[in-house]
Amino acid sequence: MSLLKILTWELFTRLQKKMRSYRLFRDILFAVFVAAFIRWVSVEPYVIPTPSMEKNLLAGDFLVVSKLSYGIRFPSTLLQIPLTHGKIWLTGIDSYLDWIQIPSYRLFGGRQVGRGDAVVFNYPMELERPPDLRTHYVKRCVALPGDTLLIRAGELYINGSRIKFPEGIQYRYELKTSRRLRSRIFERYDIQDVVFEPDGYTINTTPSVAKKLKENPFVESIERWIYPASYWDQNIFPKTPIWRWNQDFFGPLVIPKKGMRVHLGDSTLPLYREAILHHEENEIYLEEDGFLYDERDKRLDSYVFQKDYYFMMGDNRYNSEDSRFWGFVPMTAIVGKPALVILSFDKNKPWYSNIRWDRLFHIPN
Questions:
Q1: Would you state the pLDDT for residue 231?
Q2: Judging by DSSP bridges, how do beta strands 136-143 and 118-122 pair with one another?
Q3: DSSP assignment, residue 279?
Q4: Distant-in-sequence, close-in-space partners of 99: CB < 8 Å, separation ≥ 6
Q5: Where would I find the H helices in the chain?
Q6: What pLDDT, on the 0 to 100 scale, is given for residue 269?
Q7: Whole-angstrom Cα distance, residue 141 to residue 114?
Q8: How far apart are CA 323 and CA 147, in angstroms?
Q9: How far apart are CA 363 and CA 365, in angstroms?
């Protein structure tokens, strides 16, 4: 074989290898682009990490979240690694650069968030991260923009009417008994949150389960536990002695609505200050005197909201960090609606028997 043929064959072989590498790189890049596009436009997987939505959504549920339900939200952080959410997989390294931030808007606006919808959203008070890359929360929307919300003795009222939600809503009960109960009794009734007390137990469960428990001869009494109206929980929004609220006695509170004007006095400013400062697109700042000022250094006595806001609560009422603790969720933080449970694992059981088969392809309430 001549030297020319050898060189030609070697060159052809190298070009062929490079073409294969190029095609592989191109195919991988295309697959990542398609997956990222589908994840952005339509659906995204999500894992329920906490029991705040039990019994309707369980810790360990793998969800498909529909992003089409409320319209496709265009990302405001443009410089980020595809298919990540804030961190590079298996590391604590940020997967984005916040050099370029654009206002959040929605394409092809879907339906409005409904009262009673289970909603996935970005935690609005995680201010150290870009709005679209904050931690995902899932709660139930209990109040819409413009609603007046009131909680009295643990009962929810919207615009003066008592609201009832799905049967899976859990409350706290005091179970009185003179004997020590075995764990299998609570497992039988699927009760996860159990605290042993000197004269019984404190449990979180649904009203129907509490009624069934009461039929047992070893149960002396089971009564719903409610914080007294005089008790002020300093962790409850807006965390000021002006409004001495707790989880069971809260409000009245008007939920901000786009175009709604609110007076900013000593009593109302704590209610709306965080939303105005952190979620509205404006040049307003907080001064040392505790009041808000605009870009002309003029103190604001009132404010007109530019966005719609929602009030979210967990179905597991006493094991949920929700709007009662940190306030309103802007529409720009809404990600989508839980559409389907594709798999579910019970972390309290051994690995070989922890699949919840009855949860497969479950449609959430």
A1: 96
A2: antiparallel
A3: T
A4: 79
A5: 3-41, 183-188, 207-214, 269-278, 323-326
A6: 94
A7: 7
A8: 14
A9: 7
Give the separation between CA 66 and CA 217, rounded to whole angstroms.
46
Cis before 55? omega within 30: yes
245 vs 224: CA distance, rounded Å: 19
pLDDT value of residue 75: 86
Structure-block tokens of residue 54: 């039990």
Contact 287, 295 (CB under 8 A): no
Q: Token digits for 294?
A: 């605009």
Spell 40-51 as b/e; 16+ CB within 10 A means b.
Answer: beebbebebeeb
pLDDT, residue 310, reads: 98
Tokens 């004269």 correspond to 199
**pLDDT for the residue numbered 247:** 96
* pLDDT tens sequence across 157-182: 999 999 987 778 999 999 999 888 88
* Phi, psi (deg, nearest 5) at residue 73: -85, 120
Phi, psi of 18 (to 5 degrees): -65, -40
User: What are the residue ranges in the chain where pLDDT is below 70?
Assistant: 1-12, 14-22, 24-41, 109
